[in-house]
Amino acid sequence: MNSIFNFLMILLILLNFRLLSSSRLIPCIHTFVMQAVILTLVAWLTHRHNLNIHLIILMSVNVILKAIALPWMLSRVAHKRAISRELDPIVGYTASLIIGALLLGISVLISQPLYLSHTAVENFFLPISLFTIFSGLFITIARKKAITQVLGYMVMENGIYTFGMAMAIHEPFIVELSVLLDIFVAVLIMGVAIFHISREFDHMDTDRLSVLRDL
Amino acid sequence: MKYIITTHLLFTLILCPVIPGIIQKVKAFFAGRKGKPVLQMYYDWGKLLRKGAVYSRTTTWIFKASPLISVATGIIGVMLVPLGKTPNLLSFPGDMILLVYLFGFARFATVLAALDTGSAFEGMGASREVQFSMLAEPAMLLGLCALSALSGETSMSTMFTSLQAGTRPVLAAAIFIVLLAENSRIPFDDPNTHLELTMIHEVMILDHSGPDLAFIEYGAALKFWIYASLTASLIVPPGFSGEWKSLGAGLIALILVVAAVGIVESVMARLKLTRVPQLLVGATILSLISLILIIR
User: Fold this and answer.
1) Using CB atoms within 10 A of its CB, is residue B50 exposed (0-12), middle (13-18) or buried (19+)?
2) Nearest residue on chain B to A126, judged by CA atoms?
3) pTM over 0.90
4) I want to staple A107 with a disulfide (CB 3.0 to 4.6 A). Which of A130, A183, A202, B75 is the partner?
């Protein structure tokens, strides 16, 4: 049990590094799907002794949204606009890997003095959820394409979900559902926006948006 | 105790040339060919050792010393590295750092010999070799640090006997990537290309001939065996308690690792030279992750 758990957690970290280091879009989306499935699996493993209807709804919504609906929308945009890779990110991929390792170290460091008063799980959760949040944040700021930034945003939500799981005894349900709804709407809007932006302007690098002006 | 050390050493010194043979067989199997015999390297040696060596007039003693250095460091390395949980001949606290620098020294000698020939082509190969090994060395050192943090020991032989489960697969993956890079196997370097502009390691030994070449190949085989037995010791399940049993399990794991190298070579193409550093940094990151998770 414990070793399966550790294995899944290490897999989660490795998937984060895969997201940080890969320039191809479709594999990144697949990695995100794997992350979402692993997170749901971990949630089920930690709470399988006290499963209630709230948790089951939460997990199924999580799987349906993050492993099916959002990836489908993103890959549809990617296919329609024929975007296969991010070519010139703001921070290169090798540098992203190194920064990722630094972020992992930092999240381990800052989670050491934190003490979860009513944790349902091991203290392994905290650094990993912080690391997932950080790497999502980093992807959001270090990539130029809007679609990759959306992906980073979703990874960040994965981190928040991991964090929520550590606390999931009391009141995570409302919070988690509202966050899920949030990213669903956000990805929906961004998907439509990316689609229209790239149809109008033949590209979707967000840094070009900053030089838009009225004629 | 003494018997197992002797057996392990003799096994290694005699059997290490089988490794390239096994890789060739696996590659031949994937390509649907019959392939060279497994013992091909012994025949090659027999041929090379009977020949005389040719030395260019521009070379100095450095050129003649480098094959001997690479064999000598290989043999010392074999004495340092256990297979499974076998005790080794040489062990003292901190010998893992000696291992890394032994290989560093051997590489330094090879690079110097390549530069000694005065050929621009060999200089190019030397520069690439040094560049990639500079990136592979941190991965190896951090991996060994993680190993010693995992076991609480700094000597290679006691390190593996008191190894906890932990992040062993991640470490094994990191050391496997280093193995591919340091032994110039396919995603980094193609050992079969001769006289190509892309080759790295092979270009440095173009001027060596006869017994010198045989020594270099033997040193390379020893180095491969050492890296493979490090990886193999990591993937042997901790359940094997007896020394002989764990030596057997280690040998089987070593053959699996070698077969894995063959499979990687069969299914992958060479990486672009610009992509190589990224993979090596990836290996360093793998070592770093396991180190961070262990000392957390």
Assistant:
1) exposed
2) B296
3) no
4) A130
